Amino acid sequence: MTDQTDTPPLASPDTFPDALALAADIRHRRRSAVTTVTAAIAAIEVRDARINSVTRIFGPRAVAEAETIDRRIAAGEDPGPLAGVPFGVKDLFDVTDEVTTAGSIVLRESRPATRDATVVARLRGAGAIPLASLNMDEFAYGFATDNAHYGITRNPHDLTRLAGGSSGGSAASVAAGLLPFTLGSDTNGSIRVPAALCGVWGLKPTYGTVPHDGAYPFAASLDVVGPFAGTLSDLRVVYDIMRGAPMAELPRLSDLRVARLGGWFAQNVTAPLAGAIDAVAAHFAAHAGDCPTVELPEVARARAASFVITAAEGGTLHLPRLRRHAMQYDPATRDRLMAGALLPASTVLQAHRFRTWFRERVHALFRSADVLIAPATVGEAPLIDQPTILVDGQPVSARANLGLYTQPLSLAGVPILSAPLAASGGLPLGIQLIAAPGREAALFAVAAALHDAGLAGRVPLPQKAPQKAAQKAGGQ
What we know:
Blueprint: H1 19-27, H2 33-51, E1 54-57, H3 59-74, E2 86-90, H4 118-125, E3 129-134, E4 146-147, E5 151-152, E6 154-155, E7 158-162, H5 168-175, E8 181-186, H6 192-198, E9 201-204, E10 224-229, H7 232-243, E11 258-261, H8 271-287, E12 293-294, H9 299-325, H10 331-341, H11 345-365, E13 371-375, E14 388-391, E15 394-397, H12 398-401, H13 407-410, E16 416-424, E17 427-435, H14 440-452, H15 465-474
Parallel strand pairs: 2-3, 2-8, 11-12, 11-13
Antiparallel strand pairs: 1-3, 4-5, 6-7, 8-10, 9-10, 9-16, 13-17, 14-15, 16-17
InterPro entries: Amidase, Amidase_dom, AS_sf, Carboxybiuret_hydro_AtzE
Protein name: AtzE family amidohydrolase
Domain Amidase: 37-443
């Protein structure tokens, strides 16, 4: 048996095993849960200073939980499939005895949570250990993880670039190899966008299938919680545990009909990403018989409706607190919430009526296709000092527009898996895999086929560029 005291530190993605391998090592006593947790804490303390993905480390409690896991294993018990595996939570999930701040100082004087969010409790029950809370856009309102209170989260692939948001800390900590999996939330793309920009796997499950209780809301009619992971296998296991039941058996690829979303979803895509999507479509055309292009109507109106519904629900939720503590909010967040609270009821009603119509149009596509392919973002992560993307040839705010392809699809409540693609010049790209409600198994089958073909998978960090990027970032 390996001397547990000689276990190498989790100093890089190459030495941090995936969650399932890590749990197997701990269960078979090739390493201890305590050693794993303390090494993860050390890695965060040393390496996250440049990335800023972590807002708090639950050090003493995590070590205590790890000690319990080790004792149970020594007594011959099996603590579960994720025995001793540390994970992080976006700072809107309740963790017992911790204050849930949702990325804001507005809530920092709130009472600590009296119990875990349901998904956190389920993961704990499977042996996993909550280790840290992770940075996010304040109250999940944004696509950049540029937080006025806790700072900006940098992309581990290039520290001069955005990690995406609002679950940027969750994606970046997995991409950096600090944690094997993390939890995030997705209202308009807040899992899919950072997963794509950071080169990791992310899942927005079917609306309503994974418990959201214990997660601070943004727009309740759209909010979904889901996982990030470095491997597809880890993503599946974590999703099963969060859901509370194993997923259906994966269908055979030959039994699935795959189509590509065109129109709105083919416009403004960078050449490298368009080429990568072409390769994905060609793969399915060759192995599944066909990969036709299909279109959705009125996508621009769907995105506008998503904006209206999000603003109205978020503004209504925060209005009482805004009246008392408006100046404690990030000014950008405050202004948008206040504007949302002032939206006329007739405008919000029209947005919901359109949402119903558009959802029916999305669901209609699944009569002729099982899985749809679309870009997750227009391309690679934008620069921090130039936070824009090109839309119709014009530079527009990345913070407001990185959800160009994710926001419209949120209205349909369907499951969407964000798959990392082969990098462009070392920087990650990503696609959305979309299925009908409850068809997550089809998404995982298609994702597995892409991974096995070498077309999708966690994008490794560059070996030398991060140090140079860190020096440049430090000079900003």
